[in-house]
Amino acid sequence: MKRIALLCILVSSLPVLAQTKLNLVPAPAEVKMDTGNISININTEIVLEGSGLENTASLLNDYLSASYGFKLKVVTKYSNANSITLNFERSDHAIPGAYNLTVDKKGVYIAGDNAEGVLYGIQTLIQLFPVQKKGPLSIPQLSITDYPRFAYRGMHLDVCRHFFPVDFIKKYIDYLAAYKFNTFHWHLTDDQGWRIEIKKYPLLTSVGGYRNGTIIGRYPGKGNDSLHYGGFYTQDEIKEVVKYAADRYIDVIPEIEMPGHASAAIAAYPQLSCFPDESTQTGKTPWAGTKEGKQVQQTWGVFEDVFCPSEYTFNFLQDVLDEAMPLFPSKYVHIGGDECPKEAWKRSPFCQQLIRDNNLKDEHGLQSYFIQRIEKYINGKGKKIIGWDEILEGGLAPNATVMSWRGEEGGIEAAKQNHDVIMTPGTYCYLDHAQSKNEDSVTIGGYLPLEKVYGYEPVPAMLNAGQAKHILGAQGNVWTEYMAYPSKVDYMIFPRMMALSEVLWSPKEKRNWKDFERRLPAILDRLDKKKVKYSKAYYDLQATVIPANNYDGVLWKLESKIKTEKIKWANDLHHDPVAKTNYDYTKPIKITKQATYSAKIKNSNPVIQEFFFNKVTGKKITLINEPSKNYPGDGAFTLVNGVQNDKGLSKGNEFLGFLGNDCEGTIELGKMEKIRKLRFHCLNQNGSWIYPPKYIEVSYTGSLTAKRLLRVESPLEIKDGNIIYEIDLGAETQMNAINFKIVNYGIIPSGNPGAGTAAWLFVDEIEAE
Ligand code: ACM
Questions:
Q1: Virtual CA dihedral for 638, 641, 645, 649, nearest 10 degrees?
Q2: Mutate to test the pocket of ligand 1, among 300, 338, 393 (most ligand atoms within 8 A of CB)
Q3: Is the distance from the beta carbon of residue 339 to the nearest atom of ligand 1 less than 6 Å?
């Protein structure tokens, strides 16, 4: 009995053990390894047993010729084992794209449930090919049964903030196809450029397609490059891209954004605004060229001048849709719907009358009216709308699919209302967020490492089975404010897009981060071969600041994924950090005074950290309100860890973020200390809805005066987006505990992005001297 049981375990575990040698991504549903290899070489034939697979065969040949320098003969009859046979076999998976792939002594056999499945089988075969320059290609004998988990497997690209030529769009589609994505969400219109040719409205592209300059560096910008910038896709180019994508079974969903993010359209046709005679508000943006009249935006964010819900606008949008929709066979049109400030509608007598005439509750009702009217038009043409989750506000259009980006809540709400949902929550799916905590190229902010993308589960646990069916899948979003060139897009999407491919394709129970980590070097090797510039952030030296025992100083903890290399560190660097990285790292380094430290491992960039040491650094701190779970930093300790952030949101993990509420707490000094000044470091970034505190209040417990209260309302210093407040006690004062209350700004005032909603308060560090 025992022996049989043991044998069973051995047999059933063998394929699993062998499977771990493959480096496929996304991981297939089932793999059975066999022994031995076969060779694909110049004499191998592609046999088309299934009909209509000529194009798919030529995609394989294109790949072979580009990567290995040979092409295979395509025939319709199997004659010998040196062949790759393409065929169909029905499978009972509801979502299209299932396939079987067998490699054995009779050759390679790929059978798709449909033609899409055949192409996915070929993509898997391609990943079985070794990374080498020339053939023959040795591949292992095995059999794979594979099918997608989600019907919607999307990647988005914003071509408005920066414009990308058709060649790159095709390359991007190749990336999608390689990792079994099936939807390309093409974000074609926005404030900074209109990118789709509409013949009836030529100014959309000749005027709206170009801006007179772009801010330099991180928002709000250190200046303006004054370069005329832009571009657009002709309708012929769009047809070419759509065909290219369709050949790879990728659906292209155009986004024609409304009613917000409309500056470029308004620059072309000012009548689309409720205030056609008002010049574009440029505010404090470093600006190039004229500020007169309506302008295409030169900076990032959200702008008040939006489409006016007039008959002129609806006719215009219907005309635009009439030209755009036939270019895209997709059943969906994305109509945007996000981030539409209501200020213009509030002060427009026309809009106010429209609200009354239609018994709408308010401007949110007007947004809903706008979207529903457009939905009706689009439905009338046989298509469905997708909108960002703001389309829930004021009532969802009857047939709309919701793209949930401000977290998962919008998606959950829509699914409960029996609407289809595509999940794109910023905290897991925004590939424009930083992927490294260390110094990196400029990003919009946030922190989304590879493992977090990999760990994303698109179906929220609180949905019941019926509601969960409405989660069609998820999408990676690529907003390009800080991606001016294709290589930067590559850098931002790889390898995170591969992690997302596994979330979307592989069975939930097959998802295994440890195994993905194991495959990662081989996966990256393949990118190297294709000369794709990807991020190596996964291998970054991880440096964290943690509390020390007894609140005595802080500890600098260093970790590396590359276990074979020693971590070296040095302190008090001034000129040449690398040369002084002398010490071997063995345990967290204790820091008790002002200093700059650096650390590195072989082949990595050094991590450099300046510690600003003062009388509260490392002390015990407790908070009354928890920060938002989107900006938790390292908890309360973040405020006294000695790290000051001058990188704004691109080091967002070094702030505690409070949405609408205050940052209130106590620092215990552990003994009587003489303190004269307290400083509070906050962030001021109105474009991201982050506001300075309304005021800061401090009391302290000391030997002479208990709980003396002080308040400060004006900042001491504003440096870029960083803002410092100081409370000067006038003389050194004995105290052993400090209570602080950093009061949230409250509601964002009109005329600003996010007007009317709660402001964020971002706090970085508290200092005492
Ligand atoms: C979005 O990121 N504004 C949809």
A1: -20
A2: 338
A3: yes
